[in-house]
Amino acid sequence: MRAIVKERPGPGFALRDVPVPQAEPGTVIVEVKAVGICGSDLPIFNGVRDVPYPLIPGHEFAGLVAKVGPGVTGWQVGDRVTAGLVIGCGTCPYCRRGDESLCDNLREIGFHVDGAYAEYVRVPVANLHRLPDEVSFRQGASVDPVASSYHGLRRLNMRPEDTVVLFGDGAINLYALQAVRARGIEQVMVVGHHDHRLDVAAGFGAVVVNSRIQDPVEAVARFTDGRMADLVIEATGTAEVIPAVLNSTAKGGTVLLLGVFHHDAAINPAPIIRHELRLVGSFCYSKETFAASLELLRRGYVRIEPVVTHVLPLEEIGHALEMLNRREAIKVILEP
Ligand SMILES: [Zn+2]
Ligand SMILES: [Zn+2]
Questions:
Q1: pLDDT at residue 177 in the model
Q2: Who's near 105: CB < 8 A, 6+ residues apart?
Q3: Distance CA 139, CA 294 (A)
Q4: What is the pTM of this model?
Q5: What fold is seen in the domain 2-147+285-335?
Q6: Residues with CB in 5 Å of ion ligand 1
Q7: How far apart (Å, rounded) are the C-alpha atoms in residues 181 and 193?
Q8: 276 alpha carbon to ligand 1 midpoint, in Å?
């Protein structure tokens, strides 16, 4: 089968013919129909994040069950499926209470074991979710990025009267924005610096600020009559934005950190202390959040259309990565 293989450290990847994976006990082989390129795949391709080499990345996927491993019940060849990426050990205290993303022995599809930038991918049955008929493969491949923000959002006490500011105009926040709006929250602002992405955010009902043109903290102050935002969501993963994030948060407000930082960030904790802010980190998602996110997509509360800007064949991943690195594309889905 054709697969995109990350063979060694440093930038780059290879398109290779590799054997189709075997269906081991407790797993199925999924024929990949759609796989999204995640922001967290870029550091792998760019050589910033190391993985066990050689590795086939790719964790946002949907497809058809093509082969069922020994001892597997409840799944049949031809079933339409998507899958969460977290492979919990199932025995540590965190797995036992349902917090697989905190697993002491965490492994993830596409980061620690081969993923879905290929025609076929092996998936443990515990990771599978059935795709309802009315949910497309492209939507199925979008559950992961929806769940990545919804996992954090579900743990906050959002009220319809809250003011929410999102830093970052990428796919994670464009999905988070829709989930926030689905809670009945009307006062929402998105801070970014790509006009075409901010236009998508505006289409979902957000007031938008281009931080290259306007100071975001001043814009939040105007937006909230000086009270600042009850909830600020950080999804850029860049250290420079942290002071603006803290200074945009109202007294007693909450900061949700979704961005994954690859560099150290020095922060002044004074605003956290003086304004009694609550900092919430969120990493991956649980099986339950994944199912809830699939339901958000099925019911149309979260739409993928203007967020998924390009759909390309697997072979065009190089082109896709260029567009993503240049921030021309928002979300690219590959169809092997
Ligand atoms: Zn992802
Ligand atoms: Zn565990």
A1: 98
A2: 88, 89, 92
A3: 8
A4: 0.94
A5: Quinone Oxidoreductase; Chain A, domain 1 (3.90.180)
A6: 38, 60, 144
A7: 21
A8: 32
Nearest ligand to residue 92 Cα: 2
pLDDT of residue 175: 97
Query: Ligand 2 centre from 107 Cα, in Å?
Result: 9
Asked if 61 and 36 count as a contact pair (C-beta separation under 8 A), the reply is: yes
Which ligand ends up closest to the CA of 148? 1
pLDDT at 267: 84
pLDDT of amino acid 1: 96
Number of residues assigned to the chain: 336
Q: At what angle do helices 287-298 and 143-153 cross, to 10 degrees?
A: 110
Q: How far is the CA of 99 from the centre of ligand 2 (A)?
A: 8
Query: For every residue of 101-159, which 3-state class applies, written as one string?
Result: HHCCCCEEECCCECCCCECEEEEEHHHEEECCCCCCHHHHCCHHHHHHHHHHHCCCCCC
Instruction: Tell me which ligand sits closest to the C-alpha of residue 333.
Output: 1
Q: For residues 126 and 91, is the Cβ–Cβ distance under 8 A? A: no
Domain ranges of the chain: 2-147+285-335, 156-281
CA dihedral 91, 94, 96, 98 (to 10 degrees): -130
Mean pLDDT, the chain cut into blocks of 10 residues (336 residues total): 96 96 97 96 92 97 98 97 96 93 96 98 97 98 96 93 97 97 96 96 98 97 98 93 96 95 83 96 94 98 97 96 92 97
Q: Say how many Å lie between the CA of residue 285 and the centre of ligand 2.
A: 13
Each residue's pLDDT tens digit, 99-144 = 999 999 999 999 999 999 999 999 999 999 999 999 999 999 999 9
Q: Cβ–Cβ contacts within 10 Å for residue 193, how many?
A: 16
Query: Does CATH place domain 156-281 in 3.40.50.2000?
Result: no
